[in-house]
Amino acid sequence: MRLANNKISIEKCIVSFSHNKYDSRISADTFSITKAKNEIAAGKNGISHLILRSQNDEIDRLKFLFLIHGIPIMCYALGNLLCSSLKEIVVVGSDEVQRVMNRFLNTVGTCGKTIQFVREEDQNLNLVHTLQLGRNKLSPDDNELVLFQPGDLPFLYDLEKVLRFEGNKNHNIVLWLNSRQKMFPEFNEKSNKEFVKRNYHYRILNDQSKDLHDLKEPNLYPINFERMDSEIIDYLHSSRKDGQIIEAGIKMALKNPIRLFKALPYLIDHTLGFNSKIQRIRPGDKFQFGMSRKNFRRSISHLLNIPITTNLHDDPSFVSDVDALEDWEDFESLTHFASNQEKGLELIHPFGKELLKFREKDMPDLKKEIPMYHNFPAYLNDIYQTLEMGYEPFDSTGNYVSPNSNAPEVEEAFLWYQKKCKALSLNNLATRATP
């Protein structure tokens, strides 16, 4: 295995506002409805009526364009990047994404960053191609990581811990794993403390034998593109949601049996002992995939022939993406709650002032230019009806009236983000004051 010796600081980023398309609206909606019904029947913690694109949509149902508090999701994500220490950003997306981006940057500025746009290719909407489009614009060095993230993480604004993570130096991929126990340590005692509802299909035993974590797959990837084959990235991403990452690694290793030989001790240790350890800690636990953290790191590193590390973080914004109507509603409820407080959005998002300025200055024109925005409340109500949600989020005059808007989790989310935003502001002040 070729050891890594990277720069610690990440200065370049690819953000994707692109997504695959189903062949038809009927097939997309059928998939979304069936998935949600199965989750409801199984009593899952997180129910997801997925927001999916299709080839024959009159209005492109691209989730990154959905409005939260009257502002496109993609603008929150761009604001997060503008707040960071990144220097170069490549945006991948549609023509409508470019139109929104240009207006947004013209109004709020680039904060001294170089920002380039590359248009998605409708016939090639897959992760590897999206990454290649971005990589071609960035020309990264062979000793630096590039941050890749999808643009549906509207409140992931504490990026410095990723961009300046010490582990960046010695690893060519860093997996920021979403641990339920770290993000919501009180979820067993106070259910409303878990203000992001997700299904955690994976288990990991941390370095201490009884430190068991429920995991969800990562949503962002620091990657050294120059030290790995794009096929590896495809395997990692395509297998992340179904727990088949080990099997994917073995398939790659079969092309080079020495890799499999090096990983074998960790795979054998896992096979012989992992499930029995889990059952001793949590009898009857059912999960899709699990491993000890040590065995996972070492086996995957050998199978893929690149140094990989994992980090179990405690930040709910990392897991709080917008894949489904329920996710959109979480953020609409959060910002609706904040709007009733003095300063509103500025309390919970460090780019809140700029986002509101963009809404006031540019959204009136964008509502005329982009079909989704002509009457967004009616557009959303129609989707809610089609996906059999059983209620509509807006009334006839466009007021947000979801029955979930006053859920106790909404206030918990507001308090958490308010605290996070204040802490970041104080930290930035202290940094600027340091000579």
Description:
The protein has 14 helices and 14 strands. The chain is an alpha/beta fold and 435 residues long. α8 (245-253) runs parallel beside α10 and α9 (257-281) packs antiparallel against α10. The longest helix is centred in the C-terminal third of the chain and has 26 residues, at 408-433. The relative contact order is 0.15.
Main sheet overview: 5 strands, mixed
Q: What count of helical segments does DSSP give?
A: 14
Element pattern in H and E:
EEHEEEHEHEHEHEHEEEHHHEHEHHHH
Distance between the termini: 42 Å
The shape is globular
| Content-based structural category | alpha/beta
List the helices and strands and how they pair.
Layout: E1 12-17, E2 21-22, H1 25-41, E3 53-54, E4 67-68, E5 71-72, H2 73-82, E6 88-93, H3 95-108, E7 114-119, H4 127-138, E8 146-150, H5 160-163, E9 173-179, H6 180-183, E10 202-205, E11 212-216, E12 221-223, H7 230-238, H8 245-253, H9 257-281, E13 289-292, H10 293-304, E14 308-313, H11 325-339, H12 352-369, H13 376-386, H14 408-433
Parallel strand pairs: 1-6, 1-8, 2-3, 6-7, 9-14, 10-13
Antiparallel strand pairs: 4-5, 8-12, 9-11, 10-11
Supply database-style keywords.
single chain, 435 residues
